[in-house]
Structures are given as structure tokens and as C-alpha cells.
Design goal:
Blueprint lengths: L1 H30 L8 H24 L8 H26 L1
Helix pairs in contact: 1-2, 1-3, 2-3
């Protein structure tokens, strides 16, 4: 089961990285439009770092209900899959705005 969840996480992470890179390229363009530094890139980077910290902490918390048990990694990795897929939806929505 863990192997399947890890494969799902790998797929979701690959999509996350692709979406983030695409969005980063778009906000960099917007930041530099008309020679005005708006700060989209900095804010996106801060947002992504904060989201990764949140995801990891949230999933560790959820997994802690099975601390030391064989289900703990299943819960934590399943949580990472779910939250990463959710973040991917948010990044897609942001892409449509730019």
C-alpha cells in the first residue's frame, strides 16, 4: 500500500513542480512588465515555502495518531498526496488569472 501511495505522491509532486514552474515564469513576466517590480515572484516563493511547511506539519500531525505504528506512514503519505493535489488545483486556478 505504501508503494502505491508513494507513486501517487510522486505523480502529484511532479505536477506540483510543473505548475509551480509555469506560474513562476508567468509572475516573473508580470513583475517585470513596464519596468515595475511588483513582487509577485517573491510572494509566490514565500507562499510555496509556507505551504510546504504547512503540508509537512499537518501530515505529521495527522500521522501522529498512529505514532510508531505501521499505519503512520500510510496516513502521512496519504495526507501529502491529498494536500498536494489540492495545492495543484489552487496553482491551476492562479495560472488562469495570469
Amino acid at each position: 500500500m505504501l508503494a502505491c501511495i508513494n507513486e501517487d505522491l510522486s505523480i502529484a509532486d511532479d505536477a506540483l513542480n510543473a505548475l509551480y514552474s509555469e506560474l513562476l515564469g508567468k509572475v516573473q513576466h508580470w513583475d517585470r512588465a513596464d519596468d515595475v517590480e511588483v513582487g509577485f515572484e517573491t510572494r509566490l516563493r514565500q507562499s510555496q515555502r509556507a505551504w510546504i511547511s504547512f503540508r509537512d506539519a499537518e501530515c505529521a500531525f495527522r500521522g501522529s495518531v498512529m505514532e510508531g505504528g505501521s499505519a503512520q506512514p500510510l496516513i502521512e503519505h496519504g495526507c501529502r498526496v491529498a494536500l498536494t493535489k489540492e495545492r495543484n488545483m489552487h496553482l491551476r486556478a492562479l495560472l488562469s488569472m495570469f
